[in-house]
Amino acid sequence: GSTIGILGGGQLGRMLSVAAARLGYRTHIYEPGANPPAGHVAAAVTTAPYEDEAALTRFAGAVDVITYEFENVPTSALDLLEAHRPIRPGREALRISQDRLTEKQFLRDLGLATAPFAPVGTAAELDSAIAATGTPAILKTRRFGYDGKGQVRIDAPAVAGAALDDMAGAPAILEGFVDFSHEISVIAARGLSGDVACFDPGENVHEGGILRTTTVPARLGPAQRTDAVLLAASVLNRLDYVGVMGVELFVTPQGLVVNEIAPRVHNSGHWTQNGCAVDQFEQHIRAIAGLPLGDGKRHCDVVMENLIGDDINRLPALLQEPQCALHLYGKAEVKPGRKMGHVNRVQPAQK
Ligand code: ATP
Ligand code: MG
Ligand code: MG
User: Which residues take part in binding ATP (predicted)?
Assistant: First the structure.
């Protein structure tokens, strides 16, 4: 059997490793932090910084293909790895999604609707950006943001200065506020041969910037559902993408607006573990290993709930619930905002 190298050892790497093992592959995790969740289930773990060229070279030599569960791998590490082994999904998808500005420009160039946006480095640029978008608006760091971190809402031009201070000098982007009715995401996969398979769109609810629940089916009409899936497929095609991607969308009366794309398996796709014969993790492994994709068909309705921080104390009650599948990440330390696991509550498909 061959070995799949995974950059990043969090819960996504853990669940990818489980899926890979089911398909007869070994996984080798590369993770700078100690005791990563994926380390408990992977066949091998390298603990080293992304700057350690010798460790990266040994890792590449020990694996057949490289994927990632973490988008912010330094370019220098990717350059080195790519000289030895294929990286799937490819570098272009990573480059574009690492920076909210290049991401938004890419989506707009594809003809997709996005929030109005402008890059912001200075107070003068922020003033003119606000003049263009109006308020409310959201100022976001261009790089390294997740779970709503590095974002501040601007409700009136008067508080712009304070918002810019919050960016602490990091390059930023201002986005006009999208007046959406709800949020959905499409988890889409593209195989090595170019075939595309999408899972049913899920409806996402965030709390404090962190995904709380994903519900399938999402509230969408047939035309909106088709729009969502075609839109996601066009993003994957344009990138010559191989693997699973999460595409986050706002539903508005004017149509679907793309929020962001994530070039990896996605938290809002965890429902597929109990709603589909082939889940997003197996789908990703199939794609990067060059196997045919599963079709993504949903066999039941699912509500996925993240267990964040102290939610994990509800474990005894969750264990008593019928039709509630548990997925725990094996993290020893509970911290506020830390994703400890999730549950999928299933019921027969309503339609
Ligand atoms: P993730 O953890 O999904 O990567 P993130 O930190 O990259 O999150 P975003 O997805 O950009 O952040 O924003 C988090 C949430 O904030 C969105 O899901 C949405 O609810 C809200 N939001 C972000 N941008 C906008 C916008 N332009 N208009 C309205 N709401 C927005
Ligand atoms: Mg994001
Ligand atoms: Mg998001």
Answer: 100, 140, 145-151, 175-178, 183, 206, 259-260
Amino acid 248 reads: E
- Ligand 1: which atom is nearest the Cα of residue 176? 27
Q: Could you tell me the pTM of the whole model?
A: 0.97
CATH code of the region 3-87: 3.40.50.20
Q: How high is the ipTM of this complex?
A: 0.99
Question: Which residue is listed with tokens 């938290």?
Answer: 267
| Longest CA pairwise span in the chain (Å) | 61
Atom of ligand 1 nearest to the CA of 248: 10
Question: At the top level of CATH, which class does the domain 116-176 belong to?
Answer: alpha beta
Of the listed ligands, the closest to the CA of 148 is: 1
Element (H, E) at 82: helix 75-82
Fold of 182-348: D-amino Acid Aminotransferase; Chain A, domain 1 (3.30.470)
Structural domain boundaries in the chain: 3-87, 116-176, 182-348
Kind of pairing between the strands at 26-30 and 44-46: parallel
DSSP codes, 213-276: EEEES-S--HHHHHHHHHHHHHHHHHTT--EEEEEEEEEETTEEEEEEEESS--GGGTTHHHHB
The parts of the chain modelled with pLDDT lower than 50 are none
